[in-house]
Structures are given as C-alpha cells and as structure tokens.
Fold:
Amino acid sequence: MHNLQDLTIRSISVSEMDNNVYLLTSKSTGAQVLIDAADDAAAIGQLLQDAAADSTADTKLALIITTHSHWDHVRALADVVGQTKARTAAGTEDVPDISVPTDVSLAHGDIGNFEGFDLEAIKLRGHTPGSVALLYRDPQGPAHLFTGDSLFPGGVGNTQGDAARFESLMNDVSERIFDYLPDDTIVHPGHGKGTTLGAERPHLDEWRARGW
Structure:
C-alpha cells in the first residue's frame, strides 16, 4: 500500500497469472478508480471494502479503467461493474475487443478529473493497439505510473515477435515515458513486482538491440 498525501493506492494479485489490480482512493472525497478488474470479483470486492478505511468520506468507485483488452485483464470486469455500477474506460483501439461495454474511450493525453485527484492516459501502442498507462502526479512525492503489460522490470511487454509492434512499443515507451518522466517515477506493472524509471533507463538500448 502507498499512503500518499492525497491518495491511497492499494493493490492485490489475482489469478494464476499474478495479475495486479490497483485501487486508488482520494483521502478527502472517497472517489475511487480501479485499474484492471483482472479476475476474482470477490477479492476485488474485499479490496473495495478494505479501502473504505482510506478516506474520511464515504468511498465510491467512480471508474474502472482497463489498461488493455487481453482476456486475463478483464475476467472480473462484468461482475465488478454489475456489483458497483461503476463506469468503464479503455484505450479507443481496444474497446471493440472488450466484451463489457466501455463508457469512456481514452486517447493519448486524456486527463481524467476525479474528486480529489487526476489521472493522465498515456497510449503505449504495441502490446495491443490501444494499451494505456495511467499517470498520477503526487504533489508531495514521485509520480506513480500504472503500465499494464507495456512496461515491466527488465523490458517492455510481449509483442509476439512482431518487429513492427516491438518498434512501436519501444518508441512509445522511450518517448512518452522515459523522455517525459523523471527517474524517481514509480512503475506499477500489470503483473509482478514494480520498479522505477531510474532502475530501467540504463537498459533501453539493450532492450531495443535484443528485440524484445
């Protein structure tokens, strides 16, 4: 858990694929955003219950953002939407591949204004055509970047050996992440442990040379 000035970030790991589910809660207003309802709706429900302690106001799930359309990131989406009546969002190009209707179609640079915090959508094309990362800028500390399956410790996401897709993803990660954000930015990936941009930056040329 990250206990920030204005926001609390909780996460759980679900499924046999170690998918990360992230929940952001405004301390002052109770507004919440869930990132990737990947699996195990019951566990996500418990996450929402636990996060009621993170705000002095009543908590309310405002939006569920899907970082990309792959099946392992949406298995609990229908159930969580049904239980919470929350709105949904995803990158424009991935919307047709998500069976649950998407209320908000995200383009690169879109800013979501929630009660108590903002999130910026950063399109990282390659793992899927519409993959998005979500950026929260903490006013009193490093930024937090939720990268889905586009950036992990040790490399970018899987592009299935497709050179054009890999080039697209490497270019976007380089230009839209590493050229845009400082080294202390905390990376929260879609699976496994997190990292920082500073820890990964020295390896960009190595990743590009190896082609994955």
Remarks:
- The chain has one domain: 2-210.
